[in-house]
## 1
Amino acid sequence: MATVDPILSCACGRACAGKPGSAVSRKHKFYFSCQSYGVHSRACEVYVWEDELEEYVQKRIRAAGVKLQELREDRDEFIEELSDRTREIKKLKRMNKVLQLALASTAPVAALIAVMAAWAGHH
Ligand SMILES: [Zn+2]
């Protein structure tokens, strides 16, 4: 007798339902499908016969591997961009410090000019 194990995770995150085939020729075989298959109109596309399960799982693993590689590449690009931005921020902070110092050094001069202008205005 066929077994419904191992449990296959469906695209919706639930365990797939294991059911015997409906055709006479496939009555002895189980297939795995979404729990909503044949119940709700919105069901996942997952539909795997038990004898194709290993092949299906291997395909899924390969697809996940490709996806993982893409995500790693995206991550590396992101890290690179982030370090560029960090360098830019550091540069701007240094520049800001220099400008603050320059501004502070001109403050007494500006004050002196203002005092002199005020004094000249009284005479
Ligand atoms: Zn599902």
Note: Residues 53-122 form the longest helix (70 residues).
## 2
Amino acid sequence: MSSSPENGKSNDLNIVDQATTFFNSISNQLAGDQRGKLFGSIDNFINYDAKIGILGMTGAGKSSLCNALAGAQVAEVGMVDVCTRNPQIVPLAKKDHASLTLVDFPGIGANTDDWSEKDLLELYKDSLRYLDLFLWVLKGDDRTYYDNHLNICRHIFQQTEHRENIPVIFVISQIDKIDPARHWNTERIEPSQEQRKNIELKIKSVQHLFNLPRAQLCAISSRENYGLVELVYKIFTSLPNRPTTAISQSEIFGSTKFTTTSVNES
Ligand SMILES: Nc1nc2c(ncn2[C@@H]2O[C@H](COP(=O)(O)OP(=O)(O)OP(=O)(O)O)[C@@H](O)[C@H]2O)c(=O)[nH]1
Ligand SMILES: [Mg+2]
């Protein structure tokens, strides 16, 4: 797994400066007008149709993240059982010469009738051919995933026959549940001081485990709409300058294994 800077726009100081100025001018909550302002600016950052994959173990919060970014219930969320059955295409933003599309993948470990673990790993590996950026989602309040998770993640991203440098952002999700969970500051919609300390410890432990630069990590809560603006900043500054493949979106997503949804803001 390599970091994005060699590959993505993080190398391009103008883009980073521009993004920093832009993001400093907006509030931290991704809501209402803000979403339009943010995604309406994509053509300042890219000039192609970017495809962003959301990958990770089942229950990590991938579909919830899609919904939070889209500001609408575009993806089904499973409260108890495995949920996403097929990769789902979520068009997030579109300008004349640029667009952002999310691909919400079924989670690893799901073992459904639709996908065996082997097929799912193949589906993930195949996505290295066409996705421009990956979000690998890890559940923030999980303690036991590490060994298996790490192996699977490495297995997928060390497919150098497809790609030299793979832009991946590791998203630590559901951080409102990090202990002491009941201390979440509901008024300010942010973690309490005690939670912040534990979130920082979690970030450091994932950073160490996956051997990542801090810039490739983000801590979010989709439920509380927290950390999403920072995540979008990282997405914009990590997307490569050029698309990964010249194959059109309709060709890639035309196959029956993908389902498409449209975003109607709620
Ligand atoms: N408290 C809290 N719960 C969350 C958050 N994000 C997701 N969840 C819950 O976590 C559970 C799983 O969420 P999903 O979004 O369906 O997870 P997934 O990764 O898409 O799961 P699969 O489709 O099975 O791979 C659901 O009960 C969600 O409500 C969050 O930010 N905070
Ligand atoms: Mg899902």
Note: Strands lie at 49-56, 88-94, 99-104, 133-139, 168-173, 217-219, 259-260.
